[in-house]
C-alpha cells in the first residue's frame, strides 16, 4: 500500500493570485517545452509535482467559494497543453471528492496529501456517470465484508494513473446502494493495463484497470450511498472541466490573431473571426463563474444551467479549434504546429464524460 507523508503543505493557506501566477509561469516555461512529448505519450509526473508544489491542486480548499480559482488554474495549464489540463482536472476532482466526503478518516488521511500532490490520481466516474443515465451498467461489483468491501471488475479507461496513484470509483453492492471509495493502484489486487493509442491525450496516464478481489477498508470509503454523494458534488465535478475548454479556446483565439498580419487580408472572408470567438469565450467564462458561486444549489434550474454550460464548453472548444485551423491554413496543418494538436484535443473536450451526446440526453430528460 502507498505510504502517505505527514508533511504535506497546507493548501488552505495559499494565496490564489500568487498560485495562479506561479502556475502560469510553469506552464509558459517547463510545460511549453514538454507539450509535444506529452502529446506523443510521455506522462509528466515531474511537472504534476511542480504544479502541486505551486498549489495548483489546493485552490478549491479554504473558506468560501474557491472553484473559480481552481478552474482558472486549469485554464492556464490548458492554454499550453490540454492533456496536462485534463490531468490537472483529474487531480482536482480527486481532491473535490475528498472535500465533500463525510468520512472524516478518509479526509484526514488523504485530503492534504492529494491537494499537495504527494498522492497523485484521478477519477473513475466515466462508467458510473453513464450508468446513472441508463447508458451502461456499473462495471465494478462489491461485497460487504468485515471492515470494508471486496471489489472486482474492469474499468476500460481511467486517467492520471501510475503504480503509486489513487482514484475514486463507484461499485455496485447487492442489496444496497452503490458505494464510492478510493482505490490504491499500489495494491497487488489492482492491475493497470496500457490502452490502445488515442488520437490525442496519450501522455495522460490512461489505463484499463483490472480489480481482482480488492479489499477496500472503510477508511477509504468516500460515501456508503454513492447516489446522494454524486448528486452533492456533481456540479463541481462538471464545472471544473471548464478549465480545459477555457484554456484551449484562449490559445485558439491567440493562434487566429497570430496570423492576422500575413493572412488577415484573406482570413477576413472566414465566417468566424477572433473577436467573435473572444466574445463567446467571455460569455462562457461569466456563466461558469456565476455557477461556481453556488455549487451545491439543489434546484433543477441550476442543474440545467450547469449541464448547458458544459455542453457549450465542448461545442465551442471544437468550434474554436476548427476555426483556428482555417485561419492558420497550411502552416497549422503541419505536425510541428500546435494548431493540429489543439484540434485533436478539442474533440476530447467534447467527448470526455459527460460527452456532448450524454449532455443532450440529460437535458432532454430534465423537466421543461
| Count of beta strands | 8
Low-confidence stretches: 5-9
The number of helical segments is: 14
| N/C terminus separation | 49 Å
Quote the average pLDDT. 94
Derived structural class: alpha+beta
- Give the percentage of residues in beta strands: 15-25%
CATH class of the largest domain: Mainly Alpha
Order of helices and strands: HHHHHEHEEEEEEEHHHHHHHH
Shape: globular
Give a structural overview.
There is one protein chain. With 368 residues, this protein is of the alpha+beta class. It has 3 domains: 16-120, Acyl-CoA dehydrogenase/oxidase, N-terminal domain (Butyryl-Coa Dehydrogenase, subunit A, domain 1, Orthogonal Bundle), CATH 1.10.540.10; 122-227, Butyryl-CoA Dehydrogenase, subunit A, domain 2; 241-365, Butyryl-CoA Dehydrogenase, subunit A, domain 3, CATH 1.20.140. It has helices spanning 16-39, 45-54, 67-78, 82-100, 104-115, 126-131, 226-239, 242-258, 260-267, 274-292, 300-328, 330-333, 338-351, 356-365, and strands at 121-123, 140-145, 148-158, 166-173, 176-184, 190-194, 207-217, 221-223. Strands 1, 2, 3, 4, 5, 6, 7 and 8 form an 8-stranded mixed β-sheet that branches. Strand 2 (140-145) and strand 3 form a beta hairpin. Helix 1 runs parallel beside helix 3 (67-78) and helix 11 packs antiparallel against helix 13. It is globular and about 70 Å long. The termini are far apart.
Task: Considering the chains and any ligands shown, give keywords for the structure.
368 residues; alpha+beta; Butyryl-Coa Dehydrogenase, subunit A, domain 1; Butyryl-CoA Dehydrogenase, subunit A, domain 2; Butyryl-CoA Dehydrogenase, subunit A, domain 3; 3 domains; 8 strands; 54% helix; 15% strand
